[in-house]
Amino acid sequence: MEAKVKEFMAKIIAKNPSEVEFHQAVQEVAESLIPYIEENPKYRDAKILDRITEPERVIMFRIPWLDDKGNVQVNRGFRIEMNSAIGPYKGGLRFHPTVNLGVLKFLAFEQVFKNSLTTLPMGGGKGGSDFDPKGKSDNEVMKFCQSFMTELCRHIGPNTDVPAGDIGVGGREIGFLFGQYKRIRNEFTGVLTGKALNWGGSLIRPEATGYGAVYFAEEMLKTRNDSYKGKTVTVSGSGNVAQYAVEKVTELGGKCVTLSDSAGFIHDPAGIDAEKLAYVMELKNVKRGRIKEYAEKYGCEYHEGQRPWGIKCDIALPCATQNEINGEEAQVLVNNGCFVVSEGANMPSTPEAVEVFLKARILYGPGKAANAGGVATSGLEMSQNSLRLSWTREEVDQRLNNIMKSIHETCVKYGKEEDGYINYVNGANIGGFVKVADSMIDQGLV
Ligand code: NDP
Ligand code: 2IT
C-alpha cells in the first residue's frame, strides 16, 4: 500500500511542482483513500483519485489598483474551481501575502471533502490574492476588492460558484465585493456568503466556524463521556474563527487561556471571559490592532514570536493557519495531557504532528470535519437566499449543531478501527470522498 501511495504522489509532485501545501493535503488523503479504493475497485477503474486531484478549472488574473498616494499597485488573483460533482463550486477567498497557487489548491482540494461531509449540495472551490490587507486604509481595501471582482464576476454566480470569506476576508471585504458584483452584473443574488444581515446574510454565519469546531470537539468528548466543564483550552489565532471558538467554549463551561496572531501569543491563566472577548473583538475587527495589546490591558504574559502549544491544556483549538503545529509542539501538547485537538483552521497540523496525535490515540478532529460548520452555514445562507426567507438565530444554530453531529457520525462510520479508536482522519477523508466519487461516476467522464 505504501508503494502505491508513493507512486501516486510521485505523479502528483511531477505534475504540480513546487506546490508543497497541495502535495501535503493530497498525500494525507491518498494515505486514507488508496486502501479503501483497493477494496472498492469501481473507484480505481474510473480513475477517481487522478480526476479528483485535478481542478476542473483554474483562473488566474491581474488585479491593478490605485493606492491612497495615487501609486499603481498590482496583485495576482485566483479562483480554483476544483469539483462540481455535487453542487456549485463553494469556498472562501483568502487575502494574504503568502497566497499562491499551491496554497489555494490545497484549500480547494480539502474543501471538496469538507463540503461533501456537510450533507449539503456544494462542490469545492477556493480563491484569493497575495494582497496584504494589513496597514491598508478602508479606501484601499475597497479599491482592491472592486478591481478583484471586476475580473472575478464573469466566472461566478449563485448557481456556478459562490465565494465567501477566509483569512483577510471578513464582512467588510464581502460588502465591497458584493457591491461591485451587483453593479457590473445588475443582479441582486446570493453570489457570495458571509453577507451582512441587511442584504441577504444569515444569522450565525460569522459565528459558525468557531462554534462548529467547538461542537465537533463536544461530540468527540462525548465518545469518552466527557464535556467542556472545567477544561483548560488553548486557542491560536485571534480572528473570526478564534473569537467565536472562545465564545462557545466559555458558554459550555471551559476556560480559554491563550490567543495569538502572527507576532506572538498571550497567556491569560484567569481565562478569556465575555468581557475580555468583547475587547478582543473591538481590537481585531474595528481597530485592527495586535494581540499584544491584550496583555498590556489585562496584565498577563505576552510571548513574542511564539505559538501557544507549550501551555498546559486539556483541549487545543488551532484557529490561525496551516502548519502552525509541528511534530515537536504536538508532542509537547500530548505530554502535557492534551487529549482533544479540534482544528478550526485548515491543515494547521503538519504530517508529523498528525502522526503524534494518532499514535497517542487522542481525540483528533481534522479541519475538513471540525471546521466544516462555516461552509455548512454558508450553505444555509444559500438556501435562505433561494427561498427569499431568513431563519432565526435558534433555527440556524440548531441546524449547524445537527450538521456537526452528522459529520461526527460519518467520521465514526468510516473511521472506527478494530480496537474502537476513532481515526477521524480516515473517517473524514473516506466519508467525504464517497458521495463525490459516486456522483462523478454517475455523471460520466466530465
Ligand atoms: P482571520 O483573518 O479572521 O484571522 C486569522 C488569524 O490567524 C489572525 O489572528 C492572524 O494573525 C492569524 N494568522 C494568519 N496567518 C498567520 C500566519 N501565517 N502565522 C501566524 N498567524 C497567522 O481568518 P479566519 O479566522 O477566518 O481564519 C482562520 C483559519 O480558519 C484559516 O486557516 C482559515 O482557512 C480557517 N477557516 C476559516 C473559515 C471561515 O469561515 N472564516 C471556515 C473554515 C476554516 P495576523 O492578524 O497577525 O495575521
Ligand atoms: O475554509 C472554509 O471552509 C471557509 N473559508 C468557508 C467557506 C465558505 O464558503 O463559507
In short:
This protein has 446 residues and is α/β, with parallel strands linked by helices. The protein has 17 helices and 13 strands.
Task: Characterise this structure.
With 446 residues, the chain is an alpha/beta fold. The chain has three domains: 51 residues, no CATH class; 132 residues, Leucine Dehydrogenase, chain A, domain 1 (Rossmann fold); 163 residues, Rossmann fold (3-Layer(aba) Sandwich), CATH 3.40.50. The protein is 50% helix and 15% strand. The chain has 17 helices and 13 strands. A five-stranded mixed β-sheet has the order 1-2-4-3-5, sandwiched between helices. The chain has a five-stranded parallel β-sheet with strand order 7-6-11-12-13, sandwiched between helices. Helix 2 packs across helix 17 and helix 6 packs across helix 7. It is globular, with a radius of gyration of 21 Å. The protein starts with a helix and ends with a helix. The relative contact order is 0.12. The model has no long low-confidence stretch (mean pLDDT 98). The structure holds NADPH dihydro-nicotinamide-adenine-dinucleotide phosphate (NDP) and (2Z)-2-iminopentanedioic acid. NADPH dihydro-nicotinamide-adenine-dinucleotide phosphate binds next to helix 9.
